Amino acid sequence: MKTSTSLTQLALQKFKKNFWGVFSFVFILVCVVVAIFAYALAPDNSQDANQMHLSIHSKAPGFSVQMLTIPSEITSQNSISEFFFGKKNADTEIPISAYKIKDSTLQATLYTSDSSEGLQKEYALHLFSQAQQVKHIPEHYISEKKFLLGTDKYGRDLLSRMLIGIRISLGIGFIAVLISLIIGVSLGAIAGYFGGKVDAAIMWIINVTWSIPTLLLVIAITLALGKGFWQVFIAVGLTMWVEVARVVRGQVMSVKQMQYVTAARALGFNDFRIITKHILPNAMAPVIIISAANFASAILIESGLSFLGIGAQPPMPSWGGIIKDHYAYIVLGKPWLAIVPGLAIMSLVTAFMLIGNALRDALDVKS
Fold first, then answer.
1. pTM passes above 0.85
2. What is the 8-class DSSP label of residue 143?
3. pLDDT score at 118
4. Phi and psi of 195, rounded to 5°?
5. 226 vs 228: CA distance, rounded Å
6. Is 363 helix (H, G, I), strand (E, B) or coil?
7. Count of C-beta atoms within a 10 Å radius of residue 319
8. CA-to-CA dists, residue 310 to 54, 126, 173, 301, angstroms
9. What are the structural domains of the chain?
């Protein structure tokens, strides 16, 4: 037990010395925190950050406009649901360029992208519950709204969509890796430990699955299960277990020849205990490294599926979906609409690859 602890401490010390590994770990940790508090941090905390303002679509980062808010009917929603899933019934927001008080109504000039004067509309006092008089409406319901990353082609806040989109990327990685570990470790351990016909049968399944292109298999599973959020998670997970199974099989075949495994058999321990208590703990180092790479692969696959339209479905924000909606804007003078989510995907994938490399170096007993 002391040896195991000391080896763990040595691996941790080596990992701490790897600048890019530590940096990637901190970056991923920040992304996880942002994903958890996404709706609390997002300027648009409506469900899926789907508050549209078509009159201010495709605006550059830093764009600001006066926003008239017309409150919606209050519906019962507990704070936990609002924290994790956003407001169900968001207020109506209307971009305006000017306003004035006229008799018992508020007269607002709607915002237009060009220099022409916008349409003028009047709003009665009864629409604004907190205003006792018309002169109080601007104080409570008109504010300056700034879009730090600009707006998308539907006039939605791009920053809010990006923040909530982190949940999709991290969620797909976590669930897919979890599914791949459960299937891969189980089948790999059984094949490596028992050998013979059991090994031959499992290896046949592995080789058949391995021969099918990953993206093609994911698309086939997705189409069979249907389009949707959870279907993509399962589909990606069901295609990533093969590499885990092959590595675990090789490790188990090597470790089961050790003397402590022979001693465990001599003591009468059953096969399940020998595999779970004695073999797998000493064969998991390569699996941890593969899991980091699989996490990155899962994020890329989900982004690709969303780009093809069979991943997370609108209006759910997905980085791949945001690129799909705006890739044509690269040649239309508004490249940030596709570059921002592209950089986000690249940063998160790179972080997982770097942390995988750092773990490989830290867990290498020869170094």
1. yes
2. E
3. 80
4. 60, -160
5. 6
6. helix
7. 26
8. 25, 44, 17, 11
9. 2-33+159-363 (1.10.3720.10), 53-156 (no CATH)
